[in-house]
Specification:
CATH superfamily of the largest domain in chain A: Thiamin diphosphate (ThDP)-binding fold, Pyr/PP domains
Helix content of chain A: 40-55%
Number of domains of chain A: 3
Strand content of chain A: 5-15%
CATH topology of the largest domain in chain A: Rossmann fold
Oligomer: homodimer
Distance between the termini of chain A: 82 Å
Number of helices of chain A: 24
Largest sheet of chain A: 7 strands, parallel
CATH architecture of the largest domain in chain A: 3-Layer(aba) Sandwich
């Protein structure tokens, strides 16, 4: 029966790719036995409750293997045969690469190589943490990953693997489809390293097996008992059974009809398109369901008991995801002057007490970003209860792992310097694509970081982040706006970036946490006839207010703080015109690139920005060099009025 | 004497950091013996010819160790004591992190961790390639890297190291300052892997030695004879000698005066600030110069002989860097319809024949990006003459290695899909910062890649690239503009990105290679009274021309092709107004984010773009979904006219 199911997985995949006219047949033929073994013999899932918290996770890191995954999910009962027939068509449940929230049973979107592997490490961290905070044995699941050579060549998978080794994440089982062919050809040009030795060096347990269910199964059983994360190398043949087997020609194009015929013959499957061996499918489905339903029922019972005995238990809060924060009743003390990175530390610690889902860390810069939960301890192999993750200098993995935490139900935060946000851009994009509530905290937000020089001084990063669809970027001016930014983050649960200063700024009476949701609002109103508007963000709000005050004898200036450009753009036109009436000289002051800010001013001469790389020197010298010191800005504005 | 020099390197570094009031003392104390050994006993350099092609390279990958590097360069004779005294001040030769083109003797800008290591692999590739193409034994140098734990945690260094192992780059010698402390604390939280075993798995030779000149020296001597790249772990103590030694407190803050006093006492150095032991310095300088000048004179002689006997020899062309391409005398045949990725393949192969410095590769997508030099063979351990590098699925390392190639005198190209440009953003930023002539080739440039879905469909990437200061982005409409883009790249030698389509487009008579340098120009002129202007880039130029033609009965429309937004912004106002007169309804059509394009239109309603993530489906279905199909666009424009 086993053979029949695997053969049918293969032919369904091939038929899907053939019908769609595009896709990746190679991996569907090499990895069918692997996915079969995982689902038939190990996965605990429930087709009626696809987001069951205690289910096992499966991450198709080699996302181009989507057809094989969908064929499997069809056999599980998540998808219909019609779904398979509409593979890669618009609005189908079976898109070109797996997409979270589109296909039931798909635990994350994959495609960009390495992301699945790294986010799976985040899922493994989440499971360990959740288990440690749950009094009963309610949470106990594994994360299975199917990856290929490409995933393991990506730096992000190395970063995440190194961390998984340190953290002894023995709930993580990676199946490596080792076919040694990639898109451009054989990997003897590109991937000759000893992968097993490398993972051993990283503190993993490693196995190497042939492409047989019995061998794979034995290795998974050993893996489940391991104290370490496990890599199982399965030596496969890319496109096994095809006439193009073991060449890169099988990687990314549909097979010819001749090839499909001979393959089906070899596999003892009728030629008929989308043929389904009903008996085999039922056998497979039953196998999964029998095992899973036992666990599911036990879980349900245990959870009900737990909820009764622990109405305030961590898992209850976790599952309800409600935070019940009364934002009107906030009492936090804070000093008159404070860098927003320090404001952020106070605020995130305040909210962490109220929202137990906050969980995250820094890429070896917690001392500088101050993004640290003071009373929550460090997460580590001896303390999975800790809520501060030490990511090391691994920004990219930090981002991808945060996605894994969010996919597991957490509200993850992570932090580094704004200039290094570049390192994790691919992961931020995945957060935005999956609409995950990850909070990216980026500090040291302008050239006034000073002496560290241009490599450490962000210029274009704000523009780059603001250009990502669906990401909400906050650059608070002070403590109040930092509070407001977090309130929005906690209410909206959207992918967010919060951009913070190292330089101290005043905490103003005119700023407002409530107004942050509007994206921009008036912090200084003209008294009579409006002469000009100064829009500013972050530390530049203080500067704008000072200019307005200094010029008040001659000009009646309004100052608008714009902590979130995207949020302001989403407001209705009425509000936008109220804040920024047309026909008024309007300036935009921000210590970064003007790229994307032209929307708010009538001519580029009103953009007061920095469009070149910074320089190493005292902050005041550097600001002066770029005419971004107070005097230069006041002078420029005065001249233009 | 050795001890005195090392002690003096340490105290000069500490004095620099103390005077500047910021910097990183920890590494200057742990790594002084390492840098001493490399420079005193191994480096071949010439202070009067700091860019000598056959010099050894030194890359301070742990860029925060800049003070130690500057102290060493002072002792070599590259810098003065006054330079050291102005450490981290504006316009000094001694910025906070090492900067290429600012400090003589600095072989690359470093600071963002991992970049130095990865670019050094590029330098090692360059040396192998240049040596293989040079008939005589003229080229023969080593690349020394000093790196720390942080560098080795970064994914990009893993990617580059794996490739260095495959390519057997035995000219690469990495000295690893293994102090096991990083900014946030001890690395037992973050870096417990067996680094030596990992590098062994990657095909490197590894050594582990104590922090003694004799031990380090012996290892370097062995490394020079190795057939493999070499990692030498030097077990050090962070901030050795300081009262804060072996803690993270010594990492990034100046020492107290008390600490400096006791340190100088320990090191037997007078308390006096910036004390120089002249005798020691002279001894050190002489040691380097004696060894180097012998090699330099031999090189000079050999080069003169070579130039005489091989006036057209590769090294002569390489050093002169002249290409002498007559752009007016180009005869290339090309078909009427062609995807710009295919145009690019023809064009880059054409120019490669004329410019021998083109050298590069793809991150396992050469079959799709078509960025491949057809007659130049593959670079590999058995053929260092090859000009196509197989990077594997290692986008980030590909970018950093390209920087290393450019720093070594090449004109490197590299390629992947536009959506994956995110993976190498940190490297692109380094190209831009150092103003290196790297050509980034990004294909599959819009949502019309179709079935592969949103992970593979770029939306915000053009905006992100255009926001990088100093990077010139080209999106040619057809064959002519692809030629023009390459002409500008070859003439300007600036960091560039060329954005190409998978979809076929017409090759127009109205387009012009010559006009690309202006950034934008008219490809369809109104016949009478101008009704509207359609700006378009890339594949959208064809679409814009079609709309203009279709609406010509009612409207007299000009079409402007804008292959390079940055280049157009650099034109004088006169030209800009000539192409885009004020007061005319102007549309901007581009299949990507509108972010940053508002500069060219009077209202956002004239922006015809895509500001959300794509979807998986047939290209025509996907375009329709986003109202970016021909009919929707024509309709929208008509309504607004």
């Amino acid at each position: 029966m086993e053979k029949d199911i695997i053969a049918n997985l293969k032919t369904l995949s091939i038929d899907m790719i053939n019908k769609a006219g595009s896709g990746h047949p190679g991996i569907t033929l090499s990895a069918a036995s692997i996915i079969y073994t995982v689902y038939a013999n190990h996965m605990h899932i429930n087709i009626n409750d696809s987001k069951w918290v205690d289910r096992d996770r499966f991450v198709m890191s080699a996302g181009h293997g989507s057809a094989l995954l969908y064929a499997t999910l069809y056999m599980c009962g998540f998808l219909t045969l019609d779904d398979l027939k509409s593979f890669r068509q618009l609005n189908s449940k079976t898109p070109g690469h797996p997409e979270y929230n589109v296909t039931p049973g798909v635990d994350m979107s994959t495609g960009p190589l390495g992301q699945g592997f790294a986010s799976a490490v985040g899922m493994a961290i989440a499971e360990k943490h959740l288990q440690s905070l749950t009094e009963e044995e309610l949470i106990n699941y594994n994360i299975y990953v199917l990856c290929g050579d490409g995933d393991l060549m990506e730096g992000v998978s190395y970063e995440a693997a190194s961390l998984a080794g340190i953290l002894k994440l023995n709930n993580l089982i990676v199946l490596y489809d080792s076919n040694r062919i990639s898109l451009d050809g054989e990997t003897n040009h590109t991937f000759t390293e000893d992968v097993l030795e490398r993972f051993d060096a990283l503190g993993w347990q490693v196995f190497s097996v042939g492409n047989k269910v019995s061998e794979i199964d034995r290795a998974i059983n050993k893996a489940k008992k391991s104290d370490l994360p496990v890599l199982i190398e399965v030596k496969t043949i890319l496109g096994e059974g095809s006439l193009l087997a073991n060449t890169n020609k099988i990687h990314g194009k549909p097979l010819t009809s001749e090839d499909i015929s001979q393959l089906k013959q070899k596999l003892n499957i009728p030629e008929e398109e989308f043929y389904v061996n009903e008996e085999a499918v039922n056998y497979f489905k039953n196998k999964i369901m029998t095992r899973s339903s036992e666990k599911y029922l036990n879980y349900q019972k245990a959870y009900n008991d737990y909820e009764t005995s622990h109405p305030d238990g961590y898992l209850v809060k976790f599952i309800k995801g409600e935070t019940n924060i009364n934002f009107n009743d906030m009492t936090i003390d804070f000093p008159q002057m404070l860098a927003t990175r320090d404001s952020n530390q106070i605020v995130m610690n305040y909210f962490s007490e109220k929202n137990p889902l906050l969980f995250g860390g820094s890429a070896d810069l917690a001392s500088s970003t101050k993004a640290y939960l003071n009373d929550e301890g460090d997460f580590g192999p001896n303390n999975y209860k800790g809520k501060n993750i030490w990511y090391g200098v691994r920004e990219h993995a930090m981002g991808s792992i945060s996605n894994g935490l969010a996919l597991s139900g957490y509200l993850p935060f992570c932090s580094t310097f704004l200039t290094f946000s570049d390192y994790l851009k691919p992961a931020i994009r995945m957060s935005a694509l999956m609409e995950l509530p990850v909070v990216y905290i980026f500090t040291h937000d302008s050239i006034n970081v000073g002496e560290d020089g241009p490599t450490h001084q962000p210029v274009e990063q704000l523009a780059s982040l603001r250009s990502i669809p669906g990401l909400i970027v906050y650059r608070p001016a002070d403590f109040n706006e930092t509070v407001g930014s977090w309130q929005n983050i906690l209410i909206n649960k959207k992918p967010s970036a919060i951009i913070l200063s190292r330089a101290k700024t005043y905490n103003f009476k005119a700023t407002s946490n409530v107004m942050v949701k509007n994206g921009a609002y008036i912090v200084r109103r003209e008294t009579g006839k409006l002469s000009a508007i100064l829009i500013a963000t972050g530390t530049e709000v203080e500067l704008a207010l000072k200019v307005a005050e200094d010029l008040k004898k001659d000009y009646d200036i309004r100052v608008v703080s714009m902590p979130s450009v995207e949020s302001f753009k989403k407001q209705n036109k009425e509000y936008q015109y109220e804040v920024l009436p047309v026909g008024v000289k309007t300036f935009f002051i921000e210590a970064g690139s003007s790229f994307g800010l032209r929307d708010f001013v009538s001519s580029e001469k009103y953009l007061i920005n920095i469009n070149e790389f910074g320089a190493s020197g005292k902050p005041e010298d550097v600001l002066k060099k770029y005419n971004f010191d107070y005097d230069s800005i006041r002078k420029k504005i005065k001249e233009l009025l």
